[in-house]
Fold each of these.
Amino acid sequence: MSDSEKGIGVGILGFGTVGTGTVKLLLENAEHLRRRVGVPIRIRGIADLDVGRDRGVAVPEGVLTTDGFQVVRNPEVQIVIELIGGTGIARDFLLEAIRRGKSVVTANKALLAEHGPEITRAAQAAGVDIGFEASVGGGIPIIRTLREGLAANRIQAIYGIINGTCNYILTRMTQEGKAYPEVLAEAQKIGLAEADPSFDVDGIDSAHKLAILVWLATGAYIPPKEIFVEGIRDLSALDIAFAREFGYAIKLLAIAKEKGGGVEVRVHPTMIPSDHLLATVGGADNAIYVKGDFVGSSLSYGQGAGMRPTASAVVSDVIEIARNLRGGGVGRIPPSGFFLHDRGDTAMVSPFDDVRCEYYLRFQVVDKPGVLSKIAGALGAHSISISSVIQKGRKEESAVPIFIVTHHAKESDMRAALAETDRLPDVLDRTRMIRIENNL
């Protein structure tokens, strides 16, 4: 059999939702892919612990196995696709494939965020390619956008809605006025949220993805532990309603900004102007808004998860690597998009305490004269000035909320001010604070 008839052999590790979608795409669009690459892409192995379950797709005979290393070591496999997840055995499989001179594709954002430098150094030393388009944004081609399409630009800022579960929850809370626990339960019922949703709702997933985006924007690595992370558990329908009254929508944003010689990185609920494009991104969709020094603003939008969009991203990497294998262009573009960079292997992260932005504050207070002036005094003592105030109170209520939006202030000053206001005898509960981004 000639090389053109043999084609490019792929091995798939993990036959879950994304693995099933990937197999379906490779089989259903086989002729289309052959025309794109010039030779067939053939499935030579699929490894999963459960090979008996019906996935609704007929796989070639003899390719299923429970032994992932059998797939990795198969001489007919030239590209290994890792769709297992986690940072344990998935790392072992990828490194073994690379040692054997095979190019790899992964959708594993946690693995790349935690062990990216190790894996990419191994790939470059072995002279193989690594594709990871599916690791951020599902079917949105944001990896290629940053690595190639916007490569001429210094990336000044990134604002990302990059967790579909959180965006779905916040969209439902905004549109229907429902409380977080109720919407979370509904998201779990339809399979959009995990039984343990912590990885999503506590912002960890978004932080992993942000670390990858910053790596592509700067060429330097940021350990996820250095990213400030705050999730959406404490958001209330009341905050969302009054955000709208102030002219804002609330989104869980992953934010990176160029700052001097370093980068400011954070993930947290953020109030953004309700007429901004990001504010219109609803449901489980994702969007990444990028500012470059020459291109200006660019928005990438689409489905951030799911079998078919993620499989689309996985197979796009397979196509690119297959073309490189055929044309002898492996290693043409380094994993981060940078052959050289001037910041060392690890990016310099600006202290979170130095972040400056506007803030939304909700105080629960005793309904009596003079309380607002005490709060304003405490804020003013820490160089925080008030932009606008809404006070809702009725005579029959003993406790009422006060809503304040501030001018720009420093994070450390805001924290010190709230520590003081929360000790005031007329403030009845911990103050709710949400950061505001107006100049996206």
Amino acid sequence: MAKEALIYRPVRRMGLSMRSAVSAFLLAATLAGCQLAPSAAPARVDPVAALPSLPSTVSPTENVIGAREHARVIAQYGGTYSDPDVERETVGIVKRLVAASDEPGRSYRVTVLNSPVANAFALPGGYLYVTRGLLALANDRSELAAVLSHEIAHVIAKHALERAQRVETSELVERVATDVLSDSQAGQSARLKSRRTLAQFSQEQEVEADRIGIRIAGRAGFDPFAASRFLDKLERYAAFRSATGQKDDAANFLSSHPAALERRAIALQAARQFGAPGIGEQGRIPYLRAIDGIIYGDDPSEGFVRGREFLHPRLAIAFKVPPRYRLENTREAVLAAAGHDTAMRFDGVRLKEDQSPEAYLASGWINGLQEGTIETAEVSGMPAATASAVAGDWNFRIGAIRLGSSAYRFIFAERGGAGDIDAALAQTMASFRRLSPAEVARLRPLRIDLMITGENDTVASIASRMKGVERKAELFRLLNGLGPNEAPGAGRMVKIVTD
């Protein structure tokens, strides 16, 4: 069973992500995949918090599924994030929610994932997950309670088991359509119908989990209107993180979640059962104090994105992309996009002993390599080489730089002459450099820091203090739940990003 069949996310997908923008040319090129870091990172310990409770009502099947998938989730999301204050705050909220649920005897295992994306989900058997990215985005206890109660609702309603059965059926339909039906149109129709059925089933689950979750949070004494408030924030954050600055307008019938406006209306309707806005605990100050100092953005062990520059302290390397490109660091590679039809991938591979960069480019891993395009080069005293390739309607410029026993690869792609990837490759490779020990020592991860606003503080003046991020004023408003024209006011505790 695929892992995606068992993961339930409380938010819409984060817009048109950098990975979506880059995936097309990666598929077209069919280049060999590899890790950014040539050596594997050390394994992380999973410091989860187990909630004591009455004897569990969970079934053996749920336990088996949850335990089987737990390690895969940890690996997929960059390991776990350990912070005693964060763990204590998260577990405390879950305890209140469980006590207010229809099954207070269930046991839950809470894991904070070391991922910068804003996400949370649940597995059968009471496995609850929340990313540090979502914790940094939430602004009070009630917002986090809204997310966690939604996930608890999935567990109580046994959505994971139901969805697993639907996924098995969907996979069977697609396999039959692919292997048996000779009519490609008929096969496509069968697959689409199966996917639509699966998506609709998931949307029904999400609506049910919204209603159950808000009821649980309200019973636990939290602000029941926090769910609709946080949904609004997630929509804004999705647009902010989008690689193109645009929202993802993909057809909702293939989405695993209902449209945001639909979910918000349902959330408001459920919250009004408790009364008018202004009821329930928000818990803003204690929550902010708990997440003070939490890492924001990239995991230090995977390198840093600072504007247009990528720096990796463990590998002691850095490079900068051209102005139109926007970087995103992932565990597999560093990605960048300049619109829908121009993209870049950067990663690292081991080289054979004495293998030159030009020999590596000619070794057969590039499909569509154009004959006679491999050229030798030199970057800051390091041997390098470049080449061109064509696959479908995509054009590629590929560069490799040898440093020690590793080759660092830049793969630029454009479709329909969308961008000058010749110049982009040359400029990016020329910026590649080794970091000095002093530079490595100065590199620190970004963190959430708290401050109290003064009488003369404005969004612009406070945002100017933030480091390592772009569109500072917009991000400051998002992190602190401020509207487009809302001022922070004096004496307010706010979050900023700094090192």
